[in-house]
Amino acid sequence: MATTTAPTVTDLSSTTRDGLGSSPRRPDGTLKVTGEFAYSSDMWMEDMLWGMTLRSPHPHARILGIDITEALKVPGVETVLTHEDVPGAKRYGLEYKDQPVLAFGKVRYKGEPVALVAADHPETARRALERIKVDYEVLPPVSDSRRAALDPEYPLVHEEGTLKIHEEYHQSGNRVRYQPIRTGGFRDVAGEKEREREVLDALRARADAVVETEYEVGMQDQAFLGPESGLAVPEEDGGVHLYVATQWLHSDLWQIVPCLGLPEDKVRMTMAGVGGAFGGREDLSMQIHGAMLALRTGKPVKIVYNREESFYGHVHRHPAKMRFEHGAKADGTLLYATLEIIVDGGAYASATPAVVGVASSLGIGPYEVPHVLVDAYGVYTTNPPCGAMRGFGAVQACFGYESQMDKLAEKLGMHPVDLRIKNAMSQGSRIITGQELHSPLPMADMLQRARDLPMPVDRSELPDPSDLRTLPGGVAGTTHGEGVVRGVGYGVGLKNLCFSEGFDDYSTARVRLEIVAGEPNVLVHTAAAEVGQGLVTVKGQIARTELGVENVAINPSDTRVGSAGSSSASRQSYMTGGAVKMACEAVRASVFAIARERGVVPADRDDADLSLAGGKLVSAADGVLTSLADLLGESASGGTVVEETREHHHRPTEMIDPVLGQGSSHTQFGMCVHRAVVDVDVELGLVKVVALDAVQDVGKVLHPQQLAGQIQGASTQGLGLALMEEIQVKDSEIRNPSFTDYLIPTILDTPPMRIEVLEHPDPHAPYGLRGAGEPPTLSSTPAIVAAVRDATGRALTHAPVRPEDIVGIDL
Amino acid sequence: MEFLSPSTLEEALEAKSAHPDGVPIMGGTDVMVELNFDKRRPSTLIDLARVPELGEWGTDGDHTRLGAGVPYTKIVEHLSRSAPALAKASRTVASPQIRNRGSVGGNLGGASPAGDAHPPLLATDAVIELASVRGRRRVPAREFYLSLRTTARQDDELITAVLLPEPKGPQQFAKIGTRNAMVISVAAFSLALDAEKRTVGTGLGSVAPTPIRAEEAEEFLAAEFDWEGATLPSESLVRRFGELVASVTRPIDDQRGTAQYRTHSMAVMARRALTWSATEYRKGVTRCA
Q: Measured between alpha carbons, how far is A197 from A195 in angstroms, rounded to an integer?
């Protein structure tokens, strides 16, 4: 990986082995590679029961009755539960409490949980499910997201009066949130349709080139490999202990407790092995269900979804319908942009309000545009519920605005990179919400670097051009080179990092320093979810660097320590990393105080003179003062244990206003630029991505190898959205709920990636870092689709691009 | 559910005779999926993995006799000369792990129109060997597939082997999938030229309720191909062949692709397969001369 260094805030050249800036091995790495890691589905207890979920076979139906009599008669069945058995609140939800624990009155999507069974064997439970009789009155699906957003006559998914109305989001009818943004000439006429139209007409008249296009982004799945699973264990105090794979223990806890009708201290949560997340574990799945079954039967209950059930058991990426219009002067200067974006939230809100907040505020991308009109809608339908997925809201918009940039460049006869550079934002620019970009954003430089990266060799120069693995279609042998055309495309995306819009997503860390067997040992304890991203490694690196101690252990994540916030929004290095840093600083300060108290530090030396290194207390002026072992003493023999807990908050953000969409709503921004090179079989519509190269600014590299892994993974997930990944929904029903038919890229679909990392620090962030996990997911999709357009000349307005789109067959 | 695990073919045939509705299982690539997803609940499973004969291959006159349980990996490794089209198709089956377990017998037993082995068996005029306690019989692949997932196999019969004729000319296989590995066929095509008999064989997958041939295209090409001089076919001949192949398709729209795309891609694959075959044939003729 080529790394370019810019000025830094903090010198990370740690003298402690495996500190920041190095690439120590993941503590869970060997176990995962050898198949010995215990995922949440591997947990087992001697006397446990198996829980199973009866799901609605209809996307939309009234429940007239549920009869569990026959199910209870199946030998081995311990209990059958319906909505009548929910001990507390009947609804829960990430943002709005709109989702029933178990359906009552109506089902609003296919696969919605209706009843639960606990039995001595999964097969027994399955047979009992078959014997539950649910009397449904089937209703027509409410499946058209555009009508849900704009047609007041369209049937309601949630009957009037059933939900609390969030007026700040213009919630009404099937609208979960409507967010307008108006800048420039649109500002003074905001909301007056006629006058907005006049402003638009005037701008059109001033533009030398106008491009107007509708785009669609399909419903992507997180496609994590570990299905939803967990174990609920009843406890003697009448509470329950949940072992679950989740992205945010405390958010789960705060949703679970009211539904169980228990006080918060009666529900304990421990993180179980997470088999991937990507946003799909932000919402609850089996948590309340498992707890209800365990509390009712007095026995531990394990629930594991199978793969098909998993497709119904978690939220997906919102599919989006977008109408963009851009106008520019002949030299490429953007004059105005309009966007109508409708994201389909499905039956329940989940993260939809936040997705609309991102899709609107970042809807036009990192471009200077004086006049902007955005209308962003998130809606209820009876389609599968959609929520968080890597890059949410920004991914959908980015496919649209980047496609527009290419189209505009073509119309103006400009190179697509030149048009982007012409309108590129930089430090001090304001995005369309008026928020200033407070830290460096070297967008023009990044685009130039992406263009200048070496090109992959031409097919004719390959060592063996007839090697089928180098061709579209691979070893399936559909071409030996016939019909293959190469194309090149670019993409750039701007992503908000950490939570936005006034949310205080703080993180808590507890750090303990003690002497064990004569050596200093550090224990880092947070509730943060390790979802594969490598936070578990980074926490240890921070403690080693800050405390100069090599032996660092990471306590399992649980709710015995305060919230760490979610492992999402690229935020954990920033938020929990920052909390660990603060707690370490506090531990260090305590050690200095103890040393002073015990007369180890010469009186004229202040704390700035002191440091911890190699297990010793060191004075810059006087050298080693003492070892930590001597200073603190053996912990087991009454030595001093230093423990500090700290909360890390990012700078406050604010809501964007409901009329003009103005406000500083985001914490931090990240950017990645991609250049994709593809070979397309233009006759068969098959694609081989030849290169997918990235330039990303991460502020500061903490773990070079894990960083590369994040960029490669995010780029590949974007490749999936560009070329194959779509949950196909027809009349609100999923047509491909399996990994046989929901395709994700294999290694043969994934090209070599040249990654250039820039380090322009963010002065507000710990170590100057920027979250890195999401930005490449934005830019890789439009770059690949642009390259396919370059090869085929087709418009390609739908992501993923299907073979039919390339060969020109209507779908 | 009863689980039988015979260790000889004789025992296996007796088991199948006693349990005609019993489902044979080898690698389990189809059967286990159906069981796991609760799409099938057979009363009896007959595990054939321990029957030695099914895992063997060798020559049988002018044929290669391929035991029904030989995994795809072995076909790729050992039969690329004696059965080129089938070896090419085997290379496209699923993932390495599945190729280590899956077999042609399983493909024939399930008889999914998307099975990768079917087009080469049709194109090369392979023969299926069926056995029961009543004896053995041979059915040409071209008479084996009757209707959707229904074959000429009787309830008490097991598929024991496939007889693959010695290749007498170029053989091709191509398969469309929307990613570059590990994918179920959206459409597949196999072509085999027999220079001795001067005949042409085709096999089409995933474009009809069963694997099918394009007989008019076969006859057209057999008549028009320059068997003697090996001149490369004209563009119009290639195009006509593609049209004739595509004309027999009766595909459906499903989650893997549209009917129109399937028909379109069949014409493209047929044209290309013919061009590759003609080039190979020409090389062969030049070498012999």
A: 5
